[in-house]
Amino acid sequence: MIMLWFWVFMCLIIFMGLGFILKPRAFPNYHEITPELDNVSTPDDLPPPVVAFYETIAGDAIPIIHSVVMTGRGVLRFANIPFKARMRFTHRTGYDYRHYIELMWFGKPIVKVNEHYRDGKGYMNVPFGTFEDVPELNSSANQAIWGEAIWFPTIFITDTRAKWIAIDAHHAKLIVPYEQSTDEPEQEFIVTFDPDTYLIKRMETMRYRDIGKPRIKWILEGFDWKLWNGILIPSIGTVTWADQDYAWLTMHLEDIVYNVDVSDYLLQSGL
After folding, report:
1. Could you point out which of 24, 86, 178, 254 has its C-alpha 20 to 30 Å from the C-alpha of 167?
2. How far apart are CA 135 and CA 198, in angstroms?
3. Rounded to an integer, what distance in angstroms lies between the CA atom of residue 222 and that of residue 200?
């Protein structure tokens, strides 16, 4: 009898585990397409690795991006469980965003996450609570605005509030605005460029993960760069907290749309 219950238990564990392996169906692509993009020339006062980066991803015509809707699938760890996930991130670049994420089991959503950042205030609705306009959340959300711009990196030079500062041949400091904070009017990323491809290899910043606790180094990496809407961007991105030995989030980009009207979409929840 003990062996019977052991095998029943093992079969149940295997069955439950299969639910985390099945790849969920993708979200549909956004219903609009990218229009023709306006361009500007590359500024002549950038650090050398930054100049090489922009020449590689866009040549001498830098697209101006005002809004983004990106859709993909990947893996997100929730309660340290690696859930298959599908996600849609919407940005008014440099100012507001909305994240919608579904954590999947057997291809069905069992956890839905809605996050917003508007007018300098963060909002997060997750199964264990709702948080709104908390200093740590607001600061962290502003860094997400700029960290996720690895998928629309021309904003780092077309938005004049952002500034590049030279470090060495393969690193530069990116200073971004945090205009809603009087204590912290700017935030910074250390950006590492690949010496062979000139592409961004890593972006790092000190970021809040938990309310009431110190900041932790937050690392965003891009892989498998491909041409989307005339710009070379990563098709895979990972987010890692420095005190963990695994990626907290991995996103495989499946659709990205630039410069469509997202004013109403940013105010919604869900897909």
Report:
1. 178
2. 36
3. 7
Q: pTM of the predicted model, to two decimals?
A: 0.89
Which segments of the chain are extended strands (E)? 39-40, 62-63, 67-78, 81-92, 96-105, 108-118, 121-126, 129-132, 163-168, 171-177, 186-193, 200-207, 216-228, 231-241, 249-258
- Span 84-102, pLDDT tens digits: 999 999 999 999 999 999 9
- Nearest CA among 96, 84, 31 for reference residue 257: 31
Contact by Cβ (8 Å): 53, 172? no
Topology of domain 2-267 in CATH is: outer membrane lipoprotein receptor (LolB), chain A (2.50.20)
Q: Do 232 and 53 form a contact (C-beta atoms < 8 A)?
A: no
H/E segment holding residue 94? none
pLDDT per residue over 146-199, tens digit each? 999 999 999 999 999 999 999 999 999 999 999 777 677 899 999 999 999 999
CA distances for 116 relative to 89, 142, 194, 202, angstroms = 10, 11, 32, 25
Burial bucket for residue 81 (CB in 10 Å: 0-12, 13-18, 19+)? exposed
CA 95 from centroid of its chain's CA atoms: 14
